Amino acid sequence: GNSVTQMEGPVTLSEEAFLTINCTYTATGYPSLFWYVQYPGEGLQLLLKATKADDKGSNKGFEATYRKETTSFHLEKGSVQVSDSAVYFCALSDRNTGKLIFGQGTTLQVKP
Amino acid sequence: NAGVTQTPKFQVLKTGQSMTLQCAQDMNHEYMSWYRQDPGMGLRLIHYSVGAGITDQGEVPNGYNVSRSTTEDFPLRLLSAAPSQTSVYFCASSYSGRETSAYNEQFFGPGTRLTVL
């Protein structure tokens, strides 16, 4: 079945450091891929998405590229800020049903 | 627009009690869903609906019921609460649950934190 695997957290970085959060997936067909972010005490918000191979999603300085050959969708940011501290979820959407399958989430803590 | 709203924000139940978590959206979205969030497990789909009058089971449906009598509302019922249902529950909606749904963003409510003693 479909599944998403994220790197274990928590990830602790200093402000302005480079961020990578790894995400790989297993799916039949060609799913859409998403990164959602959850700030403390809030629901999830869409951060970025990609709907086909080689697409790059980007938002708020974050980027991720849909890599079909490696079944990956790693999240990157060149210079993190304290305000980026949150839990990040990688997810795929089943193209037939629209169901979202989530990874377990990665907590990011950015220190000043 | 209020987006997706959920009530209550917090709830404590005793084992065996029943209750309904409310979810409403004002975006005229067809697709609505319920997830539970547990530490280290991400979000797991409980039930979902692709339109009024249509519901289906997700990954972890046991112990929960849903109905969709209107486009706006999608309540989640716990029939006989158990400690294993202690979790944070999120409701989400998106424009369509059909063929274009894979491309559509899901909008999440703020969540309900449920504790079952």
Lay out the secondary structure:
The complex is a heterodimer of chains A (112) and B (117).
Chain A: E1 3-6, E2 11-14, E3 19-21, E4 23-26, E5 32-38, E6 44-50, E7 56-59, E8 62-65, E9 75-77, E10 86-93, E11 100-102, E12 106-111
Chain B: E1 4-7, E2 10-13, E3 19-25, E4 31-37, E5 43-51, E6 54-57, E7 64-66, E8 76-78, E9 87-94, E10 107-108, E11 112-116
Parallel strand pairs in B: 2-11
Antiparallel strand pairs in B: 1-3, 3-8, 4-5, 4-9, 5-6, 7-8, 9-10, 9-11
Summarize the structure.
The complex is a heterodimer of chains A (112) and B (117). Chain A has 112 residues and is an all-beta fold.
Summarize the structure in words:
The complex is a heterodimer of chains A (112) and B (117). With 112 residues, chain A is an all-beta fold. Chain A has no helices and 12 strands. In chain A, the strands form 3 sheets. In chain A, strands 2, 5, 6, 10, 11 and 12 form a 6-stranded mixed beta sheet that branches. A 4-stranded antiparallel beta sheet of chain A has the order 3-9-8-7, with no helix packed on it. Chain A is globular. Chain A starts with a strand and ends with a strand. Chain B is mainly beta. In chain B, 38% of the residues are buried. Chain B has strands spanning 4-7, 10-13, 19-25, 31-37, 43-51, 54-57, 64-66, 76-78, 87-94, 107-108, 112-116. The model of chain B has no long low-confidence stretch (mean pLDDT 91). The A-B interface holds A 4, 31-32, 34, 36, 41-46, 49, 51, 89, 93-95, 97-100, 102-105 and B 4, 31, 33, 35, 40-45, 48, 50, 58, 90, 92, 94, 96-98, 101-106, 108-111.
